[in-house]
Structure formats: C-alpha cells, structure tokens
Design brief:
411 residues, alpha+beta, 30% strand
Amino acid sequence: MPPASANPDSSASPLPDMYTVPEAAKILGCSPKTVYGAIKSGSLRAVNIGRCKRLTGPALADFVNNGGTQPAPPRSVSFDDSAVQKRSCTVVVPARTPLLRLDPGNDPMHPLNNYGQRLRIRTGLRIPGGEAELLDMGWYLITTWSRDEQDGTVTIRGADLSKLIVDARLYAAESPPVGATYGTEFVRLVDGILPAAVSPDLDDMAISSGTVWERDRDAALTALTSAWNGARWYVDDSGTVEAAPAHPDITSATTPDVVITDGSAGTLTGRQRDADRDRQYNALVVTGATPDDGTAAPYAVAEITDPASPIRVSGPFGRKPRFFQSDLITTGAQATATATNLLGRYTLFGRAEAVDAVPDPRVQLGDVARIYTADGDAYLGRITALTLPLTGAQGAMNATASTLPRDDEGS
C-alpha cells in the first residue's frame, strides 16, 4: 500500500524556486551587474518583493533557452499596392541584452544602422498538429532608428528595397541606347542597384531611342512598364526587381487565394464596405508619341460594351473615359493592347472592403480574397493593402480587398 500523501490535494503545484540576483548570477555564470542589465532590458523576468528582486526557476530557464534574449515587443509589416515602396516594417528590440548591443549608437557598421543595412523578416505559422512553417516577409532597407531611454528599446523602421531605386535618381536625362528593347531597358535602369528579372509572359519589343527619361528612375520604370501593354514592376521577397504582366481580371469564376469569413470556424473579426464611383471608368483612351514626319500619333479606344455590365458606355452609368498618354507607344497595335489591358482594371464594380482578421502571414499583396459573413453578401477582390502583426498576440491583421483602380494611372 503506498504511503499516504502529506498533501491531500495532489493537483496543487508548489511555488517555483525563487532566487536572489547574486544566486541567479551564480547559476548563469555571470556577474550580478549583468543580471540587473537583463532585468532592465526586459529579457529576464523578475518578481518585485518590496525593494528586492527575485527570479524564478522558469524565468531563468526561459532566459537561457532564448539565448539571453526575449521576443521583440510589438511590431508589424505593412503593404500598400498603390505606392512605389509597397512594403514597410516597424521592429522594436531591446537596446541591450547580456550578449548583444542592439542600439546602433555611433557605430556606422552596426547591422541595425541606416547606412545601407538591410533587415530580413521571417515569421512563423503554427500548423494544426504541432508543425511550424517559417514564411519569408522579404527584405527591408533600414531607414530610421530611435532609442527610448526610459523603455530601454530601439525602434527600427524599414522600407521596401525599391527605395534604393527611388533614391538613385539619374544625374541627367537619359535615353535608351539604339536597338534597345523594353526588356533590356528595364534591366539597364535597374542594373547596379538590385537584381532584375523580366517575366517570360511579357512579349518583348523595341523601344524608341528618342525616349527621354527624366531624373526619377522609379518614374521611368513605371512609364516603361505601363506602356509595355499595361505591365507592372515591383521588388519581390528576395530583393529582385521584377517586370510582370498586369494582374488578370477578377471574374465570378476566379478561384480565390484566401477565404476570410466569420463564424465559429472563421477568422474575420470586423468588416467595412465602401463603394466609389469617382475611381471607376468605362472607356480607356490611349495616345502615343507624335511621329517626326507629322503624321497622327498612335491612338486607340477600349470601351465596356457588354450589355450585362452595369457600367457599359450605353447604360445609365453614362460615358466616363480615362486617358493615358505615353511617348513609348509608337504603333497602333501597341496602343490597342495597352488600352485593352488597362481597361481591365476599371471594369469591375468600384468597391473596397476593409477587414480585420486573425493574422495569417500567408496572405500577400495581390492575392484574390473572398470575403463573406453570415449577415452579408460575398465579395471577391484583390488584396491592395495589408498590415500584418508578426505575432498573434499583437492583435488582428487589417487587409483591404479592392476592385478600385489605382489613382496614379492616367487621368
């Protein structure tokens, strides 16, 4: 027969072992001063008993298991498809740990300083069953940092690597070399700053050597890709500048990349719906460069004529054209292709939906999202803005799905 327990409640847990700072320092093999520094930085949790500090065994174990650091305080990554610099980040770290100094101070070579240093962000996703997947959130150019002396933290802000393109303005106006194509000129404008890649889905064609690029290199890339049958450019997660076709049109048959819904099995916590006529058009007029021989410039018009469309040019919506001009367009066929591709961005209902949902780092800018709630209709749109906290404890992610066109294309 087993001996009787002295504790009638066998489920009760004893209090954890408590250590003084000198005792903790002996366990960790460091000085009491180092322990006090870890407590001040927040990387080592302490219990205040009056004016004395005590440390528990679990706190010391967590400190050792984390390598002398703790997870950084709240931070996030934000994405905006309407901007040239489509992503930005904010990261907060302890200014010091017992093993590292994370405050850049006066050291221009410190890895968190803003002299060209880059920050790569990856976040984990816990999969049901216990497995974890590490997802890449891309590279960021560190732009600013600031230290809070009271909190003992450093806040680091970074921008999309496209900032290197924005900052590298041309010293003087330039033109493409004779014999250049859209693809070779795209690579030339990026060369020496970041790696460049052109999608094989883009049909290359000659570009006029009479084209003139002004000082803003990013504006030159935008003008080049827009005239390239409505293409786009962006910096991907690896830091490569890519030229890619325009996103395909969203139709009722489009398969969503992500589904956001409410209910017991859903992740949606808030939903706001907006519609906007001002940013919607049903005709696209494209004009190219005027030839040197005085003949008419290339010209094309694309219209929405589908009788089933609520914004058809012959319907109650009325005729509402948008205009796009580029000296890079030199033929009628190029003008027609550009008009057709750009019009696709304006044919859907002018609507945007902002949602709050459980953070999901798999959601990306450009994804097609299906949003629906028990008391509302379903909506299919493309993710155009996203703010993603990097840990679930920091609250919901905010995503905007939209069929509204960008403001920076045409007039």
